[in-house]
Amino acid sequence: MVKVDTFIPKSIEYIKRECTGRAIIALSGGVDSSVCAVLAYRAIGDNLIPIYIDTGLMRKGETERIKNTFLDMNLQIIDAKDRFFAALKGVDDPEEKRKAVGETFIRVFEEEAKELDADTLIQGTIYPDRIESEGGIKSHHNVGGLPSRISFKSIVEPIDDLYKDEVREVARALDLPEEICDKMPFPGPGLAVRVLGEVTEEKIEVVREANAIVEEELVESYHPWQTFAAVLGKGTGVKGDQRVHGWIVAVRAVGSRDGMTAESLELPWSVLKKIEARISGSIPSVVRVVYDLSPKPPATIEFE
Ligand code: XMP
């Protein structure tokens, strides 16, 4: 387990050494990038410029929440939805999606960095991201998904030796709000890897709404390590007296220590029925809701 008392000053020193000029950080509002932002702010102060890119692939209300949490830190918010959807058009392979999102991310950051005269990118990559990318399991977008030509002088990853629970410990020691310390992981490619096949605005809207319901029903009451909705594809259903070819939504809720392995949660039937009723009842294009029982392995936590 990480020794926070030594880790924090050491990583601040490391950031100071690596960042000679201005640095930007990709702030997503998750615990990883938030911890990095605070460490970097302590290391280089106003030479740090946190940037939040609204990819259009974020959870419901996320952009507003981040605006409110980090306004003090000179946060720049970039609306790049159209660029992400354009980059994902026609792409249905999961790894290609990660690359498309990763490349678009880095290009947008490069442009911002140029404008801000920043030559260093700070990233919240953690140990499991690195291991799974190196092992070829999934190219996490902030590691293997990077394009090969990077125009930053350096990329600094202060927490890339930590597991998620260690990052949370550091977050508490840094006095980050509880809401951030306990926040579930959310993948860098966002909702793009929670809709199977090609990303469309319609699928993203469906998964965003369904996901909000799943979180409302499960996060507070069952404290899952991670829970979310995914759109699997289309199937036949009946709504009113009409046959409908509508979306199939999967609900995932897992327990885990570090995301390397996971077990699906044994949720009460009544809770699952309520989630099904809320999703099919409030999203007209959804005809079927399923619960994923699979542990990791053989499944992964995300569907793609
Ligand atoms: P998997 O699906 O690999 O997920 O079992 C393990 C943890 O990693 C997250 N995840 C990602 N995070 N970029 C990320 O930053 C990605 O491409 C990515 N894919 C999965 C997943 O949400 C879980 O917490």
Automatic annotation (TrEMBL):
Pathway of action: Purine metabolism; GMP biosynthesis; GMP from XMP (L-Gln route): step 1/1
Enzyme Commission number(s) from the entry: 6.3.5.2
MF (Gene Ontology): ATP binding; GMP synthase activity
InterPro entries in the record: GMP_synth_C, GMP_synthase_B, GMPS_ATP_PPase_dom, NAD/GMP_synthase, Rossmann-like_a/b/a_fold
Pfam families: GMP_synt_C (PF00958), NAD_synthase (PF02540)
Chain residues that bind ATP: S28, G29, G30, V31, D32, S33, S34
EC top class named in words: ligase
Keyword field: ATP-binding, GMP biosynthesis, Ligase, Nucleotide-binding, Purine biosynthesis
Catalytically driven reaction(s): XMP + L-glutamine + ATP + H2O = GMP + L-glutamate + AMP + diphosphate + 2 H(+)
Residue ranges of domain GMPS ATP-PPase in the record: 2-183
GO terms under cellular component: cytosol
Subunit structure: Heterodimer composed of a glutamine amidotransferase subunit (A) and a GMP-binding subunit (B).
HAMAP family reported in the protein's UniProt record: GMP_synthase_B
Purpose of the protein: Catalyzes the synthesis of GMP from XMP.
Protein's name according to its UniProt entry: GMP synthase [glutamine-hydrolyzing] subunit B
Organism expressing this protein natively: Methanosalsum zhilinae (strain DSM 4017 / NBRC 107636 / OCM 62 / WeN5) (Methanohalophilus zhilinae)
